[in-house]
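Hi there,

I know you've been waiting on this one. I reran it after we fixed the sequence typo, so this is the corrected version. Both the input and the resulting structure follow.
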Amino acid sequence: MIASLLLALLPIVLLITLGALLRQREFVAATFWPQAERLGYYVLLPALFFHGLATARLDGVPVTAMALTLVTSTVVVAAVVVLMRRWVKADDPAFTSVFQGGVRFNNYVGVSMAVGLLGTQGVALAAVANASIVPTVNVLCVLVFARYGHGAEFSLRAVVQQLLRNPLLMACVAGMSARMLNLTLPAGIEPFLKTLGQASLPLGLLCVGAALDFSSVRRWLHPVSMASLAKFALMPLCTVVACHLFGLTGVAAMAALLFQTLPTASSSYVMARQLGGDAPLMAGIIASQTVLAGIAMPLLLPGLAPWLN
């Protein structure tokens, strides 16, 4: 399994490295990267999830057990991170970045690894994972920003609006609805959506590499370490326990563990800027976890896999 995992990681690492080099060498204008990330987030990745769910065979996928496993482990880790607030040596806005680093995940890396390890079934499992975790994480993060963010105010209406405007969540809901209603995509639309979805992965990973920023890692060593401990130790362990609690085994359990050991999302930086968090610290956490994931995942996934049966 380790060899398969490393082979699945290799193209991801190479694409992220290429993105970092292209940004460093200024091969394209700096304004290209935010627009490329926007294109991937609002168009390409939703197309991938919608197509994957609408055309997937979910008969053998324990959707309910997988969703319960992912939601439960995410909520438990979020609660523990909040309880650890007093031990985080940082101000309140910085704590929001620690929280995001502990619970959010990078979609592009997750889908790429799911496809590399699990084949075509990986897209469907990735879409189920996103449909479960995306709304959970967004609600939790908005609540934490409302409590600890600088100048942020909580509003139930704002939370609902944010969920309804989330393109990944809406794509998952639409795809699952189409599958449940046994709707068949038109002959010309199906390959169109498939092609769009395939384009999301390389472009998204290039954007991940371009967004890496190590400038604040040393300055924020303690909060970066706390966020990474929650992400790469607490979250995987809670996921394994939740798998046993809800009877999730096999490929679906491995997919759940995969998504819960991913580095935090590069979009966390944008959220930190918009909702009163600590954006420079968030950039350091994103960069650190992206590198640490290359070490942690080859150890965690094979090491914890026997406990999923």
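Quick highlight: The chain has a mean pLDDT of 85.

Best,
R. S.
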